[in-house]
Amino acid sequence: MNTLTPDGWLLHCDRCQKASRITGKKFGLTIHIQEPKSPWEVVHRDCVTALPPTGDKSYNSSLLIVDRYSKTPIFLPCHKDDTAMDTAPLLWSRVISHTVLFKNSISDIDPKLKSAIWTNLNRFFGTKLSFSTAYNPQSDGPAQGIIKTLEDMIKRLCAHGLEFKDSDGFTHDR
């Protein structure tokens, strides 16, 4: 008979230990960003790289879009070396065409998200671009928390042989 508590079981599960992360320093307080009044008004965008290559197209990255109002994340499979020309149509066809044009988009200074293409597209659509420094949870905390969840999910799913396939993106309920 197994008498381990759930915490004890997790400590003895080899797969759980390999997928768990060391949390390190605690994050500071997040900088106040005006709260949106409706869904998809303010979004956080980020690129998640260094994922294990998977699927027919060997995706190794994900474009993450997080709605600040509902905290709904959308993960779009892509490649680490994709350019802004590759990610802009992906965002348009799989997110914006199903939601609304964003009023404010917060992202780090990733070249894919800060290029002239993004700047001009957002100026044309009237979206304000706000930038933070990379790995700065004070300004893009919602995205960073979800990135950790995504990385943990993918590690665990890949351990069971599941793949990150081409799709319309997927969401995850928190």
From TrEMBL:
GO terms for molecular function: RNA binding. One of its GO terms (biological process) is DNA integration. GO terms for cellular component: nucleus. Residues 35-174 form the Integrase catalytic domain. Keywords: RNA-binding. InterPro entries: Integrase_cat-core, Retrovirus_Pol_polyprotein, RNaseH-like_sf, RNaseH_sf. This is Integrase catalytic domain-containing protein. It comes from Austropuccinia psidii MF-1. The lineage of its organism: Eukaryota, Fungi, Dikarya, Basidiomycota, Pucciniomycotina.
